[in-house]
Amino acid sequence: MVKNMIRYISLAPFKWIVFCCAMIAAPHLLAEVTARTDRYEMYSDETLQLNVNVDSRSNINRADIESLQTLFDILEQRQYTSTSTTLNGQRTTSKVLQFRLRPKNTGILTIPAFRSGNEASQPIQITVYSAAKRPNKLPQDAVIISATLSEQTPYVKQPFVLTLEVAYNIEMQNAALEGLTFPAFDSVELNKGTTIETRSNKQYKVYRQVLQLTADQAGRYSLPDIVLSADYYNATSGQVERFSRAAQVGRIDVRAIPKNYPTNAIWLPVTSLTLEDNLDSNQSYQVGDYIDWLTLMTVEGAPATQLPDPLANIEAQLPTGVRLYRNPAEIDDSRRVDVSALSFTAAGSLRLPEIRIPWWNIDKDKLEWATLPARNMRVAAVSQNSNATNGLSPAPNQAVAIDSEQASSDETETETTTQKSFNFWKAIAILLAIAWPATVLYFIFIARKPVQKTTEQNNKTVDTDAEQSLARYAKQNDITGFYNELMTQMRAIELTEKQLINALDDDGVNAFETLNNYLFAEQRQQPDQDSLLLLAKKFRKLFKQYKANNRSKNKSKQQLFDL
Protein backbone atom coordinates (compact mmCIF):
# COMPACT_ATOMS: atom_id res chain seq x y z
CA MET A 1 0.00 0.00 0.00
CA VAL A 2 2.79 2.36 0.96
CA LYS A 3 4.72 1.41 -2.19
CA ASN A 4 1.71 2.16 -4.39
CA MET A 5 1.21 5.48 -2.70
CA ILE A 6 4.87 6.37 -3.24
CA ARG A 7 4.65 5.29 -6.93
CA TYR A 8 1.47 7.41 -7.46
CA ILE A 9 3.06 10.44 -5.81
CA SER A 10 6.25 10.02 -7.91
CA LEU A 11 4.24 9.74 -11.21
CA ALA A 12 1.77 12.52 -10.50
CA PRO A 13 4.08 15.38 -11.55
CA PHE A 14 4.86 13.58 -14.82
CA LYS A 15 1.15 13.17 -15.59
CA TRP A 16 0.53 16.84 -14.94
CA ILE A 17 3.37 17.75 -17.27
CA VAL A 18 1.97 15.53 -20.04
CA PHE A 19 -1.52 16.97 -19.50
CA CYS A 20 -0.24 20.58 -19.69
CA CYS A 21 1.74 19.83 -22.84
CA ALA A 22 -1.37 18.35 -24.43
CA MET A 23 -3.35 21.46 -23.56
CA ILE A 24 -0.68 23.67 -25.10
CA ALA A 25 -0.38 21.52 -28.25
CA ALA A 26 -4.12 21.07 -28.77
CA PRO A 27 -4.66 24.23 -30.88
CA HIS A 28 -1.75 23.25 -33.09
CA LEU A 29 -3.05 19.72 -33.49
CA LEU A 30 -6.40 21.10 -34.62
CA ALA A 31 -4.66 23.33 -37.17
CA GLU A 32 -3.77 20.37 -39.38
CA VAL A 33 -5.29 20.04 -42.87
CA THR A 34 -8.01 17.41 -43.27
CA ALA A 35 -10.09 16.32 -46.26
CA ARG A 36 -13.14 14.08 -46.46
CA THR A 37 -15.78 13.12 -49.03
CA ASP A 38 -19.39 12.01 -48.70
CA ARG A 39 -18.72 8.78 -50.68
CA TYR A 40 -15.92 6.60 -51.99
CA GLU A 41 -17.82 4.89 -54.82
CA MET A 42 -20.00 6.55 -57.44
CA TYR A 43 -21.27 6.41 -61.00
CA SER A 44 -19.93 8.68 -63.69
CA ASP A 45 -23.12 10.79 -63.89
CA GLU A 46 -23.17 11.49 -60.14
CA THR A 47 -21.45 14.12 -58.04
CA LEU A 48 -19.65 14.01 -54.71
CA GLN A 49 -18.97 16.57 -52.01
CA LEU A 50 -15.43 17.27 -50.80
CA ASN A 51 -14.74 19.25 -47.61
CA VAL A 52 -11.23 20.54 -46.86
CA ASN A 53 -10.58 21.91 -43.34
CA VAL A 54 -7.68 24.28 -42.68
CA ASP A 55 -6.76 26.85 -40.05
CA SER A 56 -8.68 30.10 -40.56
CA ARG A 57 -5.40 32.01 -40.90
CA SER A 58 -4.07 29.68 -43.62
CA ASN A 59 -4.81 28.89 -47.23
CA ILE A 60 -4.39 25.68 -49.21
CA ASN A 61 -1.94 25.46 -52.08
CA ARG A 62 -3.48 26.62 -55.36
CA ALA A 63 -1.55 23.96 -57.27
CA ASP A 64 -3.47 21.25 -55.37
CA ILE A 65 -6.80 22.61 -56.67
CA GLU A 66 -5.38 22.63 -60.20
CA SER A 67 -4.39 18.96 -59.76
CA LEU A 68 -7.92 18.21 -58.59
CA GLN A 69 -9.33 19.80 -61.77
CA THR A 70 -7.44 17.38 -63.98
CA LEU A 71 -9.65 14.55 -62.69
CA PHE A 72 -12.87 16.31 -61.66
CA ASP A 73 -15.06 19.15 -62.85
CA ILE A 74 -15.64 21.62 -60.02
CA LEU A 75 -19.37 22.39 -60.33
CA GLU A 76 -19.66 24.41 -57.12
CA GLN A 77 -17.22 25.91 -54.65
CA ARG A 78 -17.93 27.76 -51.43
CA GLN A 79 -16.25 28.60 -48.13
CA TYR A 80 -17.49 28.95 -44.56
CA THR A 81 -16.04 29.17 -41.05
CA SER A 82 -16.33 26.49 -38.36
CA THR A 83 -15.74 27.13 -34.63
CA SER A 84 -14.89 24.41 -32.05
CA THR A 85 -13.76 24.21 -28.40
CA THR A 86 -10.57 22.39 -27.34
CA LEU A 87 -10.04 20.28 -24.19
CA ASN A 88 -8.62 23.22 -22.25
CA GLY A 89 -11.64 25.40 -23.11
CA GLN A 90 -10.00 27.42 -25.86
CA ARG A 91 -12.10 28.21 -28.94
CA THR A 92 -10.51 27.58 -32.33
CA THR A 93 -11.72 28.67 -35.75
CA SER A 94 -11.12 26.71 -38.93
CA LYS A 95 -11.91 27.44 -42.54
CA VAL A 96 -13.88 24.87 -44.55
CA LEU A 97 -13.57 24.78 -48.34
CA GLN A 98 -16.47 22.84 -49.87
CA PHE A 99 -16.43 21.49 -53.45
CA ARG A 100 -19.13 19.79 -55.53
CA LEU A 101 -17.26 17.51 -57.97
CA ARG A 102 -18.15 15.50 -61.06
CA PRO A 103 -15.64 12.92 -62.35
CA LYS A 104 -14.16 13.32 -65.81
CA ASN A 105 -13.24 9.64 -66.21
CA THR A 106 -14.13 6.23 -64.88
CA GLY A 107 -11.84 4.01 -62.80
CA ILE A 108 -9.95 4.75 -59.58
CA LEU A 109 -9.40 8.50 -59.24
CA THR A 110 -7.21 9.93 -56.49
CA ILE A 111 -8.10 13.22 -54.88
CA PRO A 112 -4.68 14.79 -54.18
CA ALA A 113 -3.35 15.82 -50.78
CA PHE A 114 -4.05 19.46 -49.90
CA ARG A 115 -1.13 21.37 -48.41
CA SER A 116 -1.04 24.39 -46.12
CA GLY A 117 2.37 25.37 -44.82
CA ASN A 118 4.01 22.24 -43.45
CA GLU A 119 0.72 20.38 -43.04
CA ALA A 120 -1.03 18.22 -45.66
CA SER A 121 -4.18 16.12 -45.84
CA GLN A 122 -4.26 12.48 -46.86
CA PRO A 123 -5.04 11.56 -50.53
CA ILE A 124 -8.48 10.01 -51.08
CA GLN A 125 -9.25 7.30 -53.65
CA ILE A 126 -12.64 7.36 -55.40
CA THR A 127 -13.90 4.46 -57.53
CA VAL A 128 -15.98 5.71 -60.46
CA TYR A 129 -18.16 3.23 -62.39
CA SER A 130 -19.62 3.88 -65.82
CA ALA A 131 -23.22 5.03 -65.57
CA ALA A 132 -24.06 2.57 -68.33
CA LYS A 133 -23.38 -0.27 -65.89
CA ARG A 134 -25.89 0.95 -63.32
CA PRO A 135 -28.40 -1.88 -62.63
CA ASN A 136 -32.07 -1.01 -63.03
CA LYS A 137 -35.40 -2.78 -63.47
CA LEU A 138 -36.74 -0.48 -66.17
CA PRO A 139 -38.03 -2.42 -69.21
CA GLN A 140 -35.74 -2.13 -72.21
CA ASP A 141 -38.48 -0.84 -74.50
CA ALA A 142 -39.37 1.98 -72.11
CA VAL A 143 -36.32 3.97 -73.20
CA ILE A 144 -34.42 3.20 -76.42
CA ILE A 145 -31.24 5.09 -77.31
CA SER A 146 -29.26 4.78 -80.55
CA ALA A 147 -26.45 6.60 -82.35
CA THR A 148 -25.72 6.34 -86.07
CA LEU A 149 -22.93 7.68 -88.27
CA SER A 150 -23.40 8.79 -91.87
CA GLU A 151 -19.79 7.77 -92.64
CA GLN A 152 -17.34 5.52 -90.82
CA THR A 153 -14.37 6.01 -93.16
CA PRO A 154 -14.36 9.74 -93.93
CA TYR A 155 -11.44 11.67 -95.32
CA VAL A 156 -9.62 14.40 -93.46
CA LYS A 157 -11.72 17.60 -93.55
CA GLN A 158 -14.76 15.68 -94.81
CA PRO A 159 -17.84 16.51 -92.71
CA PHE A 160 -20.01 13.60 -91.60
CA VAL A 161 -23.09 13.38 -89.41
CA LEU A 162 -23.76 11.72 -86.05
CA THR A 163 -27.45 11.30 -85.24
CA LEU A 164 -28.47 10.58 -81.64
CA GLU A 165 -31.98 9.32 -81.01
CA VAL A 166 -33.77 8.73 -77.69
CA ALA A 167 -37.26 7.19 -77.80
CA TYR A 168 -39.12 6.97 -74.47
CA ASN A 169 -42.64 6.41 -73.22
CA ILE A 170 -42.12 7.21 -69.53
CA GLU A 171 -41.83 10.48 -67.66
CA MET A 172 -38.17 11.35 -67.04
CA GLN A 173 -36.61 13.91 -64.73
CA ASN A 174 -33.07 15.29 -64.54
CA ALA A 175 -32.22 13.69 -67.87
CA ALA A 176 -28.61 14.24 -68.98
CA LEU A 177 -26.28 12.94 -71.66
CA GLU A 178 -22.64 11.92 -71.39
CA GLY A 179 -20.17 11.30 -74.19
CA LEU A 180 -21.16 14.10 -76.55
CA THR A 181 -17.73 15.74 -76.50
CA PHE A 182 -15.28 14.74 -79.22
CA PRO A 183 -11.84 16.35 -78.69
CA ALA A 184 -10.39 14.92 -81.92
CA PHE A 185 -13.19 16.39 -84.07
CA ASP A 186 -14.68 19.77 -84.84
CA SER A 187 -18.29 19.47 -83.72
CA VAL A 188 -21.24 21.60 -84.89
CA GLU A 189 -24.84 21.04 -83.81
CA LEU A 190 -27.08 20.99 -86.89
CA ASN A 191 -30.45 20.25 -85.33
CA LYS A 192 -32.28 18.94 -82.27
CA GLY A 193 -35.89 18.53 -81.25
CA THR A 194 -38.65 16.21 -80.04
CA THR A 195 -41.45 14.55 -82.00
CA ILE A 196 -44.08 11.88 -81.37
CA GLU A 197 -43.91 8.55 -83.18
CA THR A 198 -45.64 5.19 -83.01
CA ARG A 199 -43.40 2.13 -82.73
CA SER A 200 -44.66 -1.41 -82.24
CA ASN A 201 -48.14 -0.03 -81.53
CA LYS A 202 -46.75 2.19 -78.77
CA GLN A 203 -46.43 5.95 -78.77
CA TYR A 204 -43.03 7.41 -77.97
CA LYS A 205 -41.55 10.82 -77.54
CA VAL A 206 -38.47 10.82 -79.78
CA TYR A 207 -35.62 13.23 -79.10
CA ARG A 208 -33.10 13.68 -81.92
CA GLN A 209 -29.84 15.56 -81.91
CA VAL A 210 -27.78 15.86 -85.09
CA LEU A 211 -24.09 16.76 -84.94
CA GLN A 212 -21.66 17.42 -87.78
CA LEU A 213 -18.15 16.11 -87.11
CA THR A 214 -14.97 16.89 -89.01
CA ALA A 215 -11.50 15.43 -88.36
CA ASP A 216 -8.33 17.45 -88.88
CA GLN A 217 -5.95 14.49 -88.66
CA ALA A 218 -6.00 11.05 -90.25
CA GLY A 219 -6.07 8.01 -88.00
CA ARG A 220 -8.27 5.52 -86.16
CA TYR A 221 -10.60 6.95 -83.50
CA SER A 222 -12.84 5.16 -81.02
CA LEU A 223 -15.72 7.38 -80.03
CA PRO A 224 -17.05 6.97 -76.48
CA ASP A 225 -20.44 5.50 -75.74
CA ILE A 226 -23.21 8.06 -75.39
CA VAL A 227 -24.95 7.50 -72.06
CA LEU A 228 -28.38 8.78 -71.06
CA SER A 229 -29.14 8.95 -67.32
CA ALA A 230 -32.41 10.11 -65.80
CA ASP A 231 -34.77 9.68 -62.85
CA TYR A 232 -38.15 7.99 -63.16
CA TYR A 233 -40.92 6.91 -60.83
CA ASN A 234 -40.95 3.15 -60.24
CA ALA A 235 -44.59 2.27 -59.59
CA THR A 236 -43.62 -1.15 -58.21
CA SER A 237 -41.30 0.15 -55.50
CA GLY A 238 -43.06 3.47 -55.10
CA GLN A 239 -39.75 5.31 -55.31
CA VAL A 240 -37.93 7.58 -57.72
CA GLU A 241 -35.01 5.64 -59.19
CA ARG A 242 -32.23 6.53 -61.57
CA PHE A 243 -31.52 4.53 -64.71
CA SER A 244 -28.99 4.66 -67.54
CA ARG A 245 -28.97 3.64 -71.19
CA ALA A 246 -25.95 3.59 -73.50
CA ALA A 247 -25.54 3.79 -77.26
CA GLN A 248 -22.34 2.58 -78.90
CA VAL A 249 -20.94 4.88 -81.56
CA GLY A 250 -18.07 2.67 -82.61
CA ARG A 251 -14.80 3.25 -84.44
CA ILE A 252 -14.02 5.79 -87.16
CA ASP A 253 -11.14 5.43 -89.61
CA VAL A 254 -10.22 8.86 -90.97
CA ARG A 255 -8.39 8.60 -94.29
CA ALA A 256 -5.54 10.88 -95.35
CA ILE A 257 -5.50 13.04 -98.49
CA PRO A 258 -4.81 10.80 -101.53
CA LYS A 259 -1.34 11.07 -103.00
CA ASN A 260 -2.60 11.91 -106.49
CA TYR A 261 -4.38 15.05 -105.27
CA PRO A 262 -2.59 18.29 -106.38
CA THR A 263 -0.14 19.33 -103.68
CA ASN A 264 -0.77 23.08 -103.57
CA ALA A 265 -4.55 22.93 -104.07
CA ILE A 266 -7.17 23.30 -101.35
CA TRP A 267 -8.41 19.86 -100.31
CA LEU A 268 -12.12 19.48 -101.21
CA PRO A 269 -13.71 16.08 -100.37
CA VAL A 270 -17.32 16.69 -101.53
CA THR A 271 -20.21 15.06 -103.38
CA SER A 272 -20.27 17.51 -106.28
CA LEU A 273 -18.71 20.82 -107.37
CA THR A 274 -19.64 23.00 -110.37
CA LEU A 275 -18.05 26.19 -111.73
CA GLU A 276 -19.74 28.54 -114.21
CA ASP A 277 -19.77 32.21 -115.23
CA ASN A 278 -21.73 34.72 -117.34
CA LEU A 279 -19.17 35.66 -120.04
CA ASP A 280 -20.28 35.49 -123.69
CA SER A 281 -17.26 34.87 -125.91
CA ASN A 282 -19.40 35.34 -129.06
CA GLN A 283 -20.01 38.99 -128.31
CA SER A 284 -17.70 41.73 -129.59
CA TYR A 285 -16.45 44.51 -127.37
CA GLN A 286 -14.71 47.85 -127.84
CA VAL A 287 -11.67 49.36 -126.20
CA GLY A 288 -12.85 51.12 -123.02
CA ASP A 289 -15.75 48.73 -122.36
CA TYR A 290 -16.40 47.51 -118.83
CA ILE A 291 -18.30 44.23 -118.40
CA ASP A 292 -19.52 42.50 -115.22
CA TRP A 293 -17.99 39.06 -114.66
CA LEU A 294 -19.81 36.73 -112.27
CA THR A 295 -18.33 33.34 -111.37
CA LEU A 296 -20.50 30.86 -109.47
CA MET A 297 -19.31 27.80 -107.55
CA THR A 298 -21.92 25.37 -106.19
CA VAL A 299 -20.94 22.59 -103.77
CA GLU A 300 -22.66 19.62 -102.14
CA GLY A 301 -21.17 17.82 -99.17
CA ALA A 302 -19.34 20.72 -97.52
CA PRO A 303 -20.04 24.33 -96.52
CA ALA A 304 -19.28 26.94 -99.19
CA THR A 305 -16.90 28.65 -96.77
CA GLN A 306 -14.37 25.92 -97.63
CA LEU A 307 -14.39 26.75 -101.35
CA PRO A 308 -11.23 28.34 -102.79
CA ASP A 309 -11.08 31.65 -104.66
CA PRO A 310 -11.40 30.66 -108.35
CA LEU A 311 -9.75 33.92 -109.52
CA ALA A 312 -6.89 33.89 -107.02
CA ASN A 313 -4.15 33.37 -109.66
CA ILE A 314 -5.81 34.57 -112.84
CA GLU A 315 -4.79 38.24 -112.70
CA ALA A 316 -1.14 37.39 -113.32
CA GLN A 317 -2.21 35.29 -116.34
CA LEU A 318 -4.38 37.94 -118.02
CA PRO A 319 -3.11 39.18 -121.42
CA THR A 320 -2.01 42.76 -122.01
CA GLY A 321 -5.05 44.89 -122.65
CA VAL A 322 -7.34 43.32 -120.01
CA ARG A 323 -7.72 44.57 -116.46
CA LEU A 324 -9.57 42.87 -113.60
CA TYR A 325 -11.48 44.70 -110.83
CA ARG A 326 -12.81 42.64 -107.91
CA ASN A 327 -15.39 42.90 -105.14
CA PRO A 328 -15.65 40.69 -102.02
CA ALA A 329 -17.17 37.26 -102.64
CA GLU A 330 -20.76 36.51 -101.62
CA ILE A 331 -21.01 33.17 -99.79
CA ASP A 332 -24.04 31.28 -98.48
CA ASP A 333 -24.49 27.65 -97.39
CA SER A 334 -23.71 26.01 -100.73
CA ARG A 335 -22.66 28.76 -103.17
CA ARG A 336 -19.82 31.17 -103.68
CA VAL A 337 -20.33 34.10 -106.09
CA ASP A 338 -17.31 36.21 -107.08
CA VAL A 339 -18.34 39.59 -108.50
CA SER A 340 -15.72 41.17 -110.76
CA ALA A 341 -15.41 43.51 -113.74
CA LEU A 342 -13.23 43.33 -116.83
CA SER A 343 -12.06 46.36 -118.79
CA PHE A 344 -10.42 46.31 -122.23
CA THR A 345 -7.59 48.74 -122.94
CA ALA A 346 -6.28 47.32 -126.23
CA ALA A 347 -7.85 46.04 -129.44
CA GLY A 348 -7.44 42.58 -130.86
CA SER A 349 -8.27 38.99 -130.00
CA LEU A 350 -7.60 38.62 -126.26
CA ARG A 351 -7.47 35.16 -124.70
CA LEU A 352 -8.74 34.63 -121.14
CA PRO A 353 -6.94 31.71 -119.45
CA GLU A 354 -8.59 28.48 -118.32
CA ILE A 355 -9.69 28.14 -114.66
CA ARG A 356 -9.45 24.69 -113.04
CA ILE A 357 -10.44 23.78 -109.47
CA PRO A 358 -9.59 20.24 -108.26
CA TRP A 359 -11.95 18.34 -105.97
CA TRP A 360 -12.29 14.80 -104.67
CA ASN A 361 -15.49 12.96 -105.53
CA ILE A 362 -16.26 11.04 -102.32
CA ASP A 363 -19.00 9.00 -104.05
CA LYS A 364 -16.70 7.75 -106.81
CA ASP A 365 -13.53 8.09 -104.69
CA LYS A 366 -11.54 9.82 -107.42
CA LEU A 367 -10.03 13.17 -108.43
CA GLU A 368 -12.17 15.47 -110.60
CA TRP A 369 -11.93 19.07 -111.87
CA ALA A 370 -14.39 21.96 -112.04
CA THR A 371 -13.41 23.95 -115.14
CA LEU A 372 -14.03 27.20 -116.97
CA PRO A 373 -12.48 26.84 -120.45
CA ALA A 374 -10.14 29.40 -122.01
CA ARG A 375 -11.94 31.90 -124.24
CA ASN A 376 -11.06 34.44 -126.95
CA MET A 377 -12.59 37.90 -126.56
CA ARG A 378 -12.83 40.10 -129.68
CA VAL A 379 -12.09 43.74 -128.85
CA ALA A 380 -12.45 46.41 -131.58
CA ALA A 381 -10.73 49.80 -131.67
CA VAL A 382 -12.83 52.92 -131.07
CA SER A 383 -13.64 54.76 -134.38
CA GLN A 384 -12.53 58.44 -134.52
CA ASN A 385 -15.23 60.58 -136.18
CA SER A 386 -13.89 64.12 -136.70
CA ASN A 387 -16.22 66.93 -137.71
CA ALA A 388 -15.92 68.38 -141.26
CA THR A 389 -14.58 71.92 -141.37
CA ASN A 390 -15.71 73.18 -144.81
CA GLY A 391 -17.90 76.33 -144.49
CA LEU A 392 -17.87 76.13 -140.71
CA SER A 393 -14.88 78.33 -140.02
CA PRO A 394 -13.26 81.22 -141.88
CA ALA A 395 -10.27 80.73 -144.08
CA PRO A 396 -6.97 81.54 -142.44
CA ASN A 397 -6.25 84.64 -144.54
CA GLN A 398 -9.86 85.93 -144.69
CA ALA A 399 -10.45 89.26 -143.01
CA VAL A 400 -13.25 89.10 -140.54
CA ALA A 401 -14.96 92.38 -139.73
CA ILE A 402 -16.90 92.63 -136.56
CA ASP A 403 -19.04 95.61 -135.83
CA SER A 404 -18.08 97.05 -132.49
CA GLU A 405 -21.62 98.10 -131.57
CA GLN A 406 -23.00 94.68 -132.44
CA ALA A 407 -20.30 93.08 -130.37
CA SER A 408 -21.11 95.33 -127.44
CA SER A 409 -24.80 94.56 -127.79
CA ASP A 410 -24.12 90.84 -127.86
CA GLU A 411 -21.96 91.07 -124.75
CA THR A 412 -24.66 93.03 -122.89
CA GLU A 413 -27.34 90.52 -123.90
CA THR A 414 -25.13 87.64 -122.82
CA GLU A 415 -24.50 89.18 -119.42
CA THR A 416 -28.23 89.86 -118.93
CA THR A 417 -29.15 86.32 -119.93
CA THR A 418 -26.46 84.88 -117.65
CA GLN A 419 -27.64 86.99 -114.72
CA LYS A 420 -31.27 85.93 -115.24
CA SER A 421 -30.25 82.32 -115.52
CA PHE A 422 -28.22 82.58 -112.34
CA ASN A 423 -31.09 84.16 -110.42
CA PHE A 424 -33.48 81.51 -111.69
CA TRP A 425 -31.32 78.56 -110.59
CA LYS A 426 -30.56 80.30 -107.31
CA ALA A 427 -34.28 80.51 -106.59
CA ILE A 428 -34.75 76.85 -107.54
CA ALA A 429 -31.89 75.83 -105.22
CA ILE A 430 -33.38 77.75 -102.28
CA LEU A 431 -36.81 76.27 -102.93
CA LEU A 432 -35.41 72.71 -103.03
CA ALA A 433 -33.38 73.33 -99.88
CA ILE A 434 -36.60 74.16 -98.06
CA ALA A 435 -38.90 71.62 -99.72
CA TRP A 436 -36.65 68.55 -99.43
CA PRO A 437 -36.34 68.44 -95.59
CA ALA A 438 -40.04 69.28 -95.29
CA THR A 439 -40.95 66.42 -97.60
CA VAL A 440 -38.73 63.99 -95.64
CA LEU A 441 -40.28 65.05 -92.31
CA TYR A 442 -43.76 64.70 -93.78
CA PHE A 443 -43.17 61.17 -94.98
CA ILE A 444 -41.59 60.18 -91.66
CA PHE A 445 -44.63 61.59 -89.84
CA ILE A 446 -47.21 59.78 -91.95
CA ALA A 447 -45.21 56.55 -91.96
CA ARG A 448 -44.82 56.15 -88.20
CA LYS A 449 -48.40 55.34 -87.27
CA PRO A 450 -49.07 52.70 -89.95
CA VAL A 451 -45.81 50.91 -89.09
CA GLN A 452 -46.66 50.79 -85.42
CA LYS A 453 -50.16 49.68 -86.24
CA THR A 454 -48.89 47.02 -88.63
CA THR A 455 -46.43 45.75 -85.99
CA GLU A 456 -49.21 45.50 -83.44
CA GLN A 457 -51.44 43.76 -85.96
CA ASN A 458 -48.64 41.30 -86.84
CA ASN A 459 -48.07 40.48 -83.17
CA LYS A 460 -51.78 40.01 -82.71
CA THR A 461 -51.95 37.83 -85.81
CA VAL A 462 -49.10 35.60 -84.52
CA ASP A 463 -50.82 35.19 -81.17
CA THR A 464 -54.13 34.39 -82.89
CA ASP A 465 -52.44 31.90 -85.24
CA ALA A 466 -51.00 30.07 -82.22
CA GLU A 467 -54.55 29.45 -80.98
CA GLN A 468 -56.13 28.82 -84.37
CA SER A 469 -53.56 26.20 -85.40
CA LEU A 470 -54.25 24.27 -82.19
CA ALA A 471 -57.99 24.70 -82.56
CA ARG A 472 -57.84 23.28 -86.09
CA TYR A 473 -56.31 20.02 -84.83
CA ALA A 474 -58.81 19.89 -81.96
CA LYS A 475 -61.80 20.24 -84.32
CA GLN A 476 -60.35 17.53 -86.56
CA ASN A 477 -60.02 15.27 -83.49
CA ASP A 478 -56.30 14.84 -84.32
CA ILE A 479 -54.88 14.29 -80.83
CA THR A 480 -51.32 13.57 -81.96
CA GLY A 481 -51.32 16.55 -84.32
CA PHE A 482 -52.58 18.80 -81.53
CA TYR A 483 -49.80 17.63 -79.22
CA ASN A 484 -47.08 18.05 -81.87
CA GLU A 485 -48.32 21.56 -82.68
CA LEU A 486 -48.40 22.42 -78.96
CA MET A 487 -44.82 21.20 -78.53
CA THR A 488 -43.76 23.22 -81.60
CA GLN A 489 -45.36 26.37 -80.22
CA MET A 490 -43.75 25.77 -76.81
CA ARG A 491 -40.30 25.34 -78.37
CA ALA A 492 -40.79 28.57 -80.32
CA ILE A 493 -41.14 30.53 -77.07
CA GLU A 494 -38.85 28.18 -75.06
CA LEU A 495 -41.61 27.13 -72.65
CA THR A 496 -41.05 23.86 -70.79
CA GLU A 497 -43.77 21.46 -69.66
CA LYS A 498 -43.11 22.38 -66.04
CA GLN A 499 -43.55 26.06 -66.79
CA LEU A 500 -46.71 25.32 -68.76
CA ILE A 501 -48.27 23.39 -65.87
CA ASN A 502 -47.26 26.06 -63.34
CA ALA A 503 -48.75 28.83 -65.50
CA LEU A 504 -52.09 27.13 -66.26
CA ASP A 505 -55.10 27.19 -63.95
CA ASP A 506 -56.76 24.00 -62.71
CA ASP A 507 -58.89 23.54 -65.83
CA GLY A 508 -55.88 24.00 -68.11
CA VAL A 509 -53.74 21.59 -66.05
CA ASN A 510 -56.48 18.94 -66.17
CA ALA A 511 -56.78 19.32 -69.93
CA PHE A 512 -53.02 19.03 -70.45
CA GLU A 513 -52.62 16.05 -68.12
CA THR A 514 -55.52 14.24 -69.81
CA LEU A 515 -53.81 14.82 -73.18
CA ASN A 516 -50.41 13.67 -71.86
CA ASN A 517 -51.80 10.59 -70.11
CA TYR A 518 -53.77 9.56 -73.16
CA LEU A 519 -50.65 9.61 -75.32
CA PHE A 520 -48.00 8.27 -72.96
CA ALA A 521 -49.57 6.61 -69.93
CA GLU A 522 -51.81 3.60 -69.51
CA GLN A 523 -54.80 5.88 -69.06
CA ARG A 524 -56.68 5.67 -72.39
CA GLN A 525 -59.38 8.30 -71.75
CA GLN A 526 -59.35 10.43 -74.88
CA PRO A 527 -59.50 14.19 -74.28
CA ASP A 528 -62.67 15.73 -75.67
CA GLN A 529 -62.78 18.58 -78.15
CA ASP A 530 -63.93 21.14 -75.56
CA SER A 531 -60.97 20.48 -73.27
CA LEU A 532 -58.52 20.82 -76.19
CA LEU A 533 -60.12 24.10 -77.32
CA LEU A 534 -59.93 25.35 -73.73
CA LEU A 535 -56.22 24.44 -73.57
CA ALA A 536 -55.61 26.20 -76.90
CA LYS A 537 -57.28 29.36 -75.61
CA LYS A 538 -55.30 29.41 -72.39
CA PHE A 539 -52.04 28.66 -74.23
CA ARG A 540 -52.55 31.74 -76.41
CA LYS A 541 -52.14 33.96 -73.35
CA LEU A 542 -48.94 32.16 -72.36
CA PHE A 543 -47.64 32.37 -75.94
CA LYS A 544 -47.96 36.13 -75.88
CA GLN A 545 -46.32 36.39 -72.46
CA TYR A 546 -43.34 34.11 -73.09
CA LYS A 547 -42.68 35.28 -76.65
CA ALA A 548 -41.27 38.58 -75.32
CA ASN A 549 -39.16 37.01 -72.57
CA ASN A 550 -37.38 33.88 -73.86
CA ARG A 551 -34.98 32.09 -71.60
CA SER A 552 -31.26 31.88 -72.39
CA LYS A 553 -30.31 28.86 -74.53
CA ASN A 554 -26.71 28.54 -73.23
CA LYS A 555 -26.65 25.79 -70.61
CA SER A 556 -23.67 24.55 -68.69
CA LYS A 557 -24.39 20.85 -69.38
CA GLN A 558 -26.29 18.65 -71.81
CA GLN A 559 -29.94 18.48 -70.65
CA LEU A 560 -32.57 16.70 -72.71
CA PHE A 561 -35.70 18.15 -71.18
CA ASP A 562 -36.67 20.29 -68.23
CA LEU A 563 -39.45 17.99 -67.09
Automatic annotation (TrEMBL):
Pfam families: BatD (PF13584). Keywords: Membrane, Signal, Transmembrane, Transmembrane helix. It comes from the Bacteria. The chain crosses the membrane at residues 424-445. The keyword Phosphoprotein does not apply. Residues 1-31 form the signal peptide. This is Protein BatD.
